[in-house]
Amino acid sequence: MGGRRFLEDEFDTPLPIVPEPACHLVLIPYEETTTYRRGTRAAPEAIVEASSHVELFDESLRVDATLHGVETLRPPVTDLRSITACARRLRADHPRSLLGFLGGEHSITPALVAGCCEGEFGVVWIDAHADLRESYLGKQDNHACAGFHTARLAPMVQIGVRTLAREEAEFLAHTDRVRAFTRWGEDARKAVEALPRNLYLTVDVDGFSPELVRAVGTPEPGGLHWEEVLDIIKNLFREKSVIAFDVVELCPDERDIASTFTIAKLVYKIISHHAYYTLGG
Hints:
Layout: E1 23-28, H1 43-50, E2 57-58, E3 63-64, E4 70-73, H2 80-93, E5 98-103, H3 108-116, E6 122-126, H4 146-151, E7 156-159, H5 166-173, E8 178-181, H6 186-193, E9 198-204, H7 226-239, E10 241-248, H8 257-278
Parallel strand pairs: 1-4, 1-5, 5-10, 6-7, 6-9, 7-8, 9-10
Antiparallel strand pairs: 2-3
Helix pairs in contact: 1-8, 2-3, 7-8
């Protein structure tokens, strides 16, 4: 099955030459503030490795996104400031490409948004946690604060959130910048519809139910199912313009290859929806 890595720029089988890859996938193995189970720095390469077993023909959309060109990049980032600079440079160099970032911990998201998003845009945030603390353990750049600092940059809809600190609940009660939902339903759909047309999508993989993805740093009971997340992705690409995305917080475990494979397939599903709805198949 599969047979080659869809995230690599070297293939066993020749592909059509395209002048500019439609998607650039950027590996960001940044991990500095995780507070429970560590290991997110290994996720980008693990996802690339698992991708060799993902079928490249999307069975529901009936497209092969790799035909439009997918380039994998490994920039030499060392801190959040260099991550922002990297994202800004990539957006300038590839203004029409979908940018995808594979982390790493969730603290990379505000740094990426600051670098690759301009003008009016919104954020869709899939996560078990709201991450709306202004600071945590004395650090404002902690991964538990990523939602708070992203919301300073753009209005946000969070989906899958099922645990809150008191200060986060109070923040949500008094802000018009963030709306949080436990499930994907009509209310969440209307909230996304109210966001600007251009969107940044961030997926913390603990937004999924642990029944589906267990290899995470801070698991929570409950969560989103595969079909729900695919429906969110479909809705975003069909109704909006997704300009960039990230997938974060996977902690690869050799005893749990299903989690890593599921996230590799998720990444390719996002690229496939871009190929189908943005590029026309």
